[in-house]
Predict the 3D structure of the following.
Amino acid sequence: MITLDPNTHTYSLDGKPVPGVNQILESVGICDYSRIPDKHRIPALERGKLMHMASEDLFDGVDPWWVDEPSIAGRMSALEKWVEESGFIPRQWEEPMYSSIHGYAGTPDAFGEDRDGLLLPDWKSGQYYPDYPIATAAYLALMEVDSHKVRRCSLLLRDNGTYKQVFHEDFFRDFTVFQNALSIFKWKAAKLRTP
């Protein structure tokens, strides 16, 4: 069974460590937030954790505690607005998953349907970065669904209650980049071990 430690954001399968999507992308330099000063990066990480907890609670039907949380209230308002305007109905959300084929784990924010069909959205509480399409491709591969039938997007949620939806059109290019990153990650893990 795949488990996620929410404090360290690390995955394990039956007690053994498994690399996660973000860990893989960070290890090969595709996703590098180290260039962001700590005074911005650390609050953004905390905000992201809160956003994930709140979005899970939103879809679970929990009373909206986030309206009293200043760091995410506007962004959660944006998410609620998007859900209403898009007609998004989640089938699953915040569920850790593992690919036995590729040997990695991840937690898609949500998977469901909007008015235009199947959709895998990924919430973002900051600006757009070029690694977002790569991550959504990795999440979609975890779903083991026909990638031709599912659209992927990053949903940029803003503090002022607005949002921007950025679609990622080329799954095969994006997933090929991820597979290459995974290969490098595995090579580094095997070759750079201390004997």
